[in-house]
């Protein structure tokens, strides 16, 4: 395939019409730390943060449920004074976003992140109601992220100002530009600057844009795919329209997922197959060879009303 080598992973994915859905990184606890230094390939691990802070972040990542650390920054900086640190609990029910303003990185060491969201939560006053938008621009990890992400970041800051941050690697470089919204942990892919206004407005309304969703971070890839098929069938865009009742493998590559519609109580059962593609794409710009990828197919869809 011809074309600039720095764009080959996103180009091959787009040209192959690879599915976006079922590809979002899975994590329920997101630690988002402002750091304006150089982002190496492994962002926080190879940073110039104090050793004690790097060790603390690693411990939190290991101890907290499905945790993931992201470095974030703004250029130009629009946030209030202090070093920004956000903790998002991107769970299906009652997601939370907590915002801290640090005087120095060592302030992290005194935080008890395990208490967030509990009955004894000492950080209720730091909870943030306004959504947060992250755009991956991590060029050291993959050039597609910087080349496609930066124009989206610029457009997003025009619309949502200090609520928008650049972020380090979120996975799926070939789907750049990648944009995430919190507290719900919704990942969008192949975002262009002209799409940003729709995503921002939908998020503020409490809705999603299913056609651009890679998935919801609290779901595994099979449930993410099932949500896509469900929203496509029902046309429902409300963030909290559904909850997962059951998700279990029938076979290694065959999952049955059952959702309940919160408003009506209707149950939706979807059988989803995960299959290797018959096409090949570059997963990253640095890959030597393209590879087959997982694609999802809807096998069966059933609706059951509460009375039936």
Task: Spell out the blueprint of helices and strands.
Blueprint: H1 8-15, E1 29-34, H2 51-63, E2 67-73, E3 83-89, E4 96-102, E5 132-136, H3 143-160, E6 164-167, E7 179-182, E8 186-188, H4 196-205, E9 213-216, H5 221-234, E10 242-251, E11 254-261, E12 267-276, E13 294-304
Parallel strand pairs: 1-2, 5-6
Antiparallel strand pairs: 1-3, 2-6, 3-4, 5-7, 7-8, 8-9, 10-11, 11-12, 12-13
Structural summary, described in words:
This protein has helices at 8-15, 51-63, 143-160, 196-205, 221-234, and strands at residues 29-34, 67-73, 83-89, 96-102, 132-136, 164-167, 179-182, 186-188, 213-216, 242-251, 254-261, 267-276, 294-304. The chain has 308 residues and is of the alpha+beta class. The strands form 2 sheets. It has a 9-stranded mixed beta sheet with strand order 4-3-1-2-6-5-7-8-9. The protein has a 4-stranded antiparallel beta sheet with strand order 10-11-12-13, with helices on one face. The termini are far apart.
What's the short story on this structure?
This protein has 308 residues and is an alpha+beta fold.
- The number of helical segments is 5
Beta-strand percentage range = 25-35%
Shape by Cα distribution = globular
The major beta sheet can be summarized as: 9 strands, mixed
Q: What is the H/E string?
A: HEHEEEEHEEEHEHEEEE
Q: Give the rounded overall mean pLDDT.
A: 94
The helix/strand class is alpha+beta
Rg estimate, integer Å:
19 Å
User: How many β-strand runs?
Assistant: 13
Terminal-residue CA separation: 54 Å
Helix fraction by DSSP (H/I, runs of at least 4): 10-25%
Strand order of the largest sheet: 4-3-1-2-6-5-7-8-9
